[in-house]
Design a protein that fits this description.
binds adenosine-5'-triphosphate; alpha/beta; ABC_transporter-like_CS; ATP-binding; transmembrane transporter activity; globular
Length: about 300
């Protein structure tokens, strides 16, 4: 049922397979234990990967509220040419978690990410981060934010490395440091070999991974990724999702707009939009009692030959 409340649920990541890794350049370790997802990429001076990721099995319904480093949307609405394309949508995204924003094409995913990222101003409602506004009065994002734009927003006349380094140069990093970190970010998504190629010489999937690297490189408080895997094969999709998970693990709020159920499945929470409104979600059933763990996979046996 559409409504103005935000309803998200928490799901356990179901995949316990090792995450495919691009060629690492530095400290990189994999961990394939169930419930421990992610890798330690010893770069960029950021905090190390937290060794375990607590993903409870139980459903959770989030309410809207303030709180430390929460990204909150309060009844956000947005109009385009007099048409309401987002209608009273609320969300509450926590650091350390990945929130999938799903919905059919045109349902408002990009619009919602733009509003909570401060790229657009809502017609009504408010977005807050850490209890305060998401932008300065001049419209500059206040939390450090890594955007993966659907259209990438890369500069065609610069190389892949330069496009990524720009995100750091704009924040005052020295040229050498920015280049080093750009190469590391490109390596995280397996495109460091393309570092010196012009953007105009890259394929769609390569461009998309450069755009992801640019969002990763800043060690952002908030990562807003709009369809970050739409051009990728399954292996590279998993690499990108694993890197977004790493961002969450180091404490970022991560929002991923996606059409891909496999990507949504890897997230902890999901907010589903239908025609610019939040669709009421059904929470998954509670975990089985001890001793009944396999019941969920059992089907009633109907044998027409038996009474
Ligand atoms: N600049 C614009 N001009 C006109 N209409 C727009 C504009 N931006 C968004 N819209 C409309 O707003 C609605 C929501 O668009 P939005 O891009 O947020 O959807 P989406 O769920 O991200 O879609 P997709 O999955 O196709 O990227 C759509 O009906 C779209 O046509």
């Amino acid at each position: 049922m559409p409504g103005s409340s935000s309803t998200t649920w928490r799901r356990r990541c179901s995949r316990a397979t090792p995450i495919p890794t691009p060629r690492p350049t530095r400290c990189w370790r994999t961990c394939s234990e169930a419930g421990r997802r992610g890798h330690d990429f010893g770069t960029s001076g950021g905090p190390a990967w937290e060794s375990s990721v607590a993903i409870p099995k139980v459903a959770r319904v989030s309410g809207v509220g303030g709180g430390a480093r929460l990204l909150v949307g309060h009844d956000l609405s947005f109009d385009v040419e007099g048409r309401r394309v987002l209608d009273s949508v609320s969300l509450r995204a926590e650091p350390g978690r990945m929130l999938a924003v799903t919905g059919t094409s045109g349902s408002g995913k990009t619009t919602l990410l733009s509003l909570v990222g401060g790229l657009a101003r809502p017609a009504a409602g408010e977005a807050t981060y850490d209890g305060g506004p998401v932008t300065t009065k001049q419209g500059e994002p206040l939390p450090t934010t890594g955007f993966v734009l659907q259209s990438y927003g890369l500069v065609a006349t610069l190389t892949a490395a330069e496009n990524v380094a720009v995100a750091l140069r704009g924040r005052g990093a020295a040229a050498t440091e920015a280049t080093d970190r750009a190469l590391e970010a490109l390596a995280r998504v397996g495109v460091d070999e393309l570092a010196d190629r012009l953007i105009s010489e890259l394929s769609g999937g390569q461009l998309q991974r450069v755009a992801v690297a640019r969002a990763l490189v800043v060690g952002a408080d908030v990562v807003l990724a709009d369809e970050p895997t739409s051009e990728l094969d399954e292996t590279n999709r998993d690499v990108v999702v694993a890197q977004l998970r790493l961002e969450a693990n180091r404490g970022a709020v991560v929002l991923v707009a996606t059409h891909d159920p496999a990507v949504a499945e890897e997230c902890d929470d999901e907010l589903h939009l239908v025609d610019g409104r939040v669709e009421q979600m059904q929470a998954p059933p509670p975990p089985p009692e001890p001793g009944h763990e396999h019941d969920a996979f059992m089907r009633p046996v109907t044998d027409p030959g038996r009474p």
